[in-house]
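Quick one, T. Sequence first:
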Amino acid sequence: MQSFRAQPGFSLLELMTVVAIAGFISIWGIASLRSYSKHEDTRRAASSVAGWLSKARSEAMAGGRMTFVVFAQPTNGTVPFDPGQYGAMVIDEDGDGQISAGDAITPLFLPNGINTDVTIYGVEGQTKLKNTPIPSDDESQAVVAGNMTNLTDGTTAPIDPTLGVPVIAYSPQGSPVAMATPTNWGTGAGGIYLTDNNDMLIAVVVLPLGDVHTLAWDTGSESWK
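Structure tokens:
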């Protein structure tokens, strides 16, 4: 007759160890997934901002009129912002070279589903990554050097004294200009900086001739890529 022998089981200590390890892996996995998701949302937000700027340039060249993009509500009330609004594109319909009541205003919002932690740098008053240098590709004449503490409303674009906020303005030729000097091509170059309010920072840079590209800060090599 075949005999059966009791099979050894797990001790309580062993079971507790397995459960603890499984819990740690689960927590680590969830945290990593959330971080990855916020990184991807920051990239999506930067892609949207780059798209807005490229569209503004195209509108200026196609219509032969200046086009403006603001990422903060002007202090003179000419461009009201709704809750959750990221920016506004304004076409200079009346041809006065300014943002006024007669112009066409398009509010700009990020795609649905973007994590609410993703903002233009400085919106939440964050100080993390504050020592990150402004990249050399950002050829702003308003902020020629420095780091994230030198930004105004998350950008290095020139501040218009009438509006009280930075403005990315495109001439009819497609060059970024300062509103005060619309014939001086390249004077409106600069960058818009977005963050996940943790360890992700992306620059959307408008070059002096009007082209737009994005750069991400690599915390490992401490360089823009």
